[in-house]
C-alpha cells in the first residue's frame, strides 16, 4: 500500500483534474463543493494510502496502530447473504486492508444448533484461531452469547446485551427514529403510523421505544398506544397487507414510518391497492440501508452501515493494542435526507 510520503495533494489533484485547494478542502471536511466531489477525493486518497496530518494524529490519539504492524487475519460471522451484511463486510474489509490486515466472511449454515454441532463447526472453520471476531446483527442469541465468551478479541456490530463486556458499534436507529418523527412533525403531520415487527432483535425493540419517546416529547400521546400500529410479526404477507390496508383506509393516518429496510416496498403495495398516491395522499419515511428502487428519492434518515463496519475495524485494532482499556459502545448518527416522499399539510 502506498505511503503518504509517496503521494501528495498534487498527485490526487492531477489524477482527478481538480485543484490542490479543492482536494485539501475535501480532505479537511470544509464546505465549498458537492458531496460527490468530496467522496471522489476521499475515495482516491484512501486508495493511494494518503493520510492528512490530522488523520495520523487522530489514529495516534485513539491508540489505533497502523502501518508496519504485524499482519492479522480476522473473521466476520454473517447470517444469510444480504446487501445489508455485504455493506458491513465492505466497511470492515476496506478499513482493515488500509491498515495492513484482512478479514474473511464466514456464513453461518442454516439450521446450525448449539452444543456439539456448533463446537464442531467452530473447529472445522478454525474460527477460534483467527486474530479476532466481528459479530454481526441477526446472529441467534445463543450463538452470540457463546461467541462473546470466547477468549479472543471481539467487536459486535449491534446493540450489545446489557451485561456484555465487548466493544460494539451500531448505526443509531433510535436517533434515526427521532429525526424521522421531528421531520414529519415539522411538515404538519400528527397522525403517524409506525410499521414494523418490534420483537425479533434488540434494534427493532429500540426503534419502537424511540418512536414512543418521540411521540411523548411532541405531545402526540395517542400515538403511544401499541394497538394503533403495525408492530406484530408478519407471519403471512397477504393477511398482514390486509391489516395494513384497513388501517390506511380508515383515513386517520397522514404519514407512515417504515422502520426497517425493505418494509417500504410493502407500504408501496398497500398504497397502490388503495389507490393512494405517495406523497400526495400519504407521506412515507423509510429506514433503508441504501437508496430504494421503489422510492429513489425516499425521505429517510441515513443509516451508516458501511461506516459502522469501518469503525468496527478500528475498535478491533484498538482493543488488541490496548486490552486493558474500558469497553466502548459507539453509535453513528447520520443526517436526514429530505427526499420527496413527505408533503406539507
UniProtKB/TrEMBL annotation:
Name recorded for this polypeptide: Transcriptional regulator LacI/GalR-like sensor domain-containing protein
PANTHER family referenced in this protein's UniProt entry, alphabetically: HTH-TYPE TRANSCRIPTIONAL REPRESSOR PURR-RELATED (PTHR30146:SF148), LACI-RELATED TRANSCRIPTIONAL REPRESSOR (PTHR30146)
UniProt keyword terms in alphabetical order: DNA-binding, Repressor, Transcription, Transcription regulation
Pfam family, one: Peripla_BP_3
Domain Transcriptional regulator LacI/GalR-like sensor: 182-332
SUPFAM superfamilies membership: lambda repressor-like DNA-binding domains (SSF47413), Periplasmic binding protein-like I (SSF53822)
UniProt key word Repressor: yes
Source organism, top-level taxon: Bacteria
Nucleus listed as a keyword: no
Amino acid at each position: 500500500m502506498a505511503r503518504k510520503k509517496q503521494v501528495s495533494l498534487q498527485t490526487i489533484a492531477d489524477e482527478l483534474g481538480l485543484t490542490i485547494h479543492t482536494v485539501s478542502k475535501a480532505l479537511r471536511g470544509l464546505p465549498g463543493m458537492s458531496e460527490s466531489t468530496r467522496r471522489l477525493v476521499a475515495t482516491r486518497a484512501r486508495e493511494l494510502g494518503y493520510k492528512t496530518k490530522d488523520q495520523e494524529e487522530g489514529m495516534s490519539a485513539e491508540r489505533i496502530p497502523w502501518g508496519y504492524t504485524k499482519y492479522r487475519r480476522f473473521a466476520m460471522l454473517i447470517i444469510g447473504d444480504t446487501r445489508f451484511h455485504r455493506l458491513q463486510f465492505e466497511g470492515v474489509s476496506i478499513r482493515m486492508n488500509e491498515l495492513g490486515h484482512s478479514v474473511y466472511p464466514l456464513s453461518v449454515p442454516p439450521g446450525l444448533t448449539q452444543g456439539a454441532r456448533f463446537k464442531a463447526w467452530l473447529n472445522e472453520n478454525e474460527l477460534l484461531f483467527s486474530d479476532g471476531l466481528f459479530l454481526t446483527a441477526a446472529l441467534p442469541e445463543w450463538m452470540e452469547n457463546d461467541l462473546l465468551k470466547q477468549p479472543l478479541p471481539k467487536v459486535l456490530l449491534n446493540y450489545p446485551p446489557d451485561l456484555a463486556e465487548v466493544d460494539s458499534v451500531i448505526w443509531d436507529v433510535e436517533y434515526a427514529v427521532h429525526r424521522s418523527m421531528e421531520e414529519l412533525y415539522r411538515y404538519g403531520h400528527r397522525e403517524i403510523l409506525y410499521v414494523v415487527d418490534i420483537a425479533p432483535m434488540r434494534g427493532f425493540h429500540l426503534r419502537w421505544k424511540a418512536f414512543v419517546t418521540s411521540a411523548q416529547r411532541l405531545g402526540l400521546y395517542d400515538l403511544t398506544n401499541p394497538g394503533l400500529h403495525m408492530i406484530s410479526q408478519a407471519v403471512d404477507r397477504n393477511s398482514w397487507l390486509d391489516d395494513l390496508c384497513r388501517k390506511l383506509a380508515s383515513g386517520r393516518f397522514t404519514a407512515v414510518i417504515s422502520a426497517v429496510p425493505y418494509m417500504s416496498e410493502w407500504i408501496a403495495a398497500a398504497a397502490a391497492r388503495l389507490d393512494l398516491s405517495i406523497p400526495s395522499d400519504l407521506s412515507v419515511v423509510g429506514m433503508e440501508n441504501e437508496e430504494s428502487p421503489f422510492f429513489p428519492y425516499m425521505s429517510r434518515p441515513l443509516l451508516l452501515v458501511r461506516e459502522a463496519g469501518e469503525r468496527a475495524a478500528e475498535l478491533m485494532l484498538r482493543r488488541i493494542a490496548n486490552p486493558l482499556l474500558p469497553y466502548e459502545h459507539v453509535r453513528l448518527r447520520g443526517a436526514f435526507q429530505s427526499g420527496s416522499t413527505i408533503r406539507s399539510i
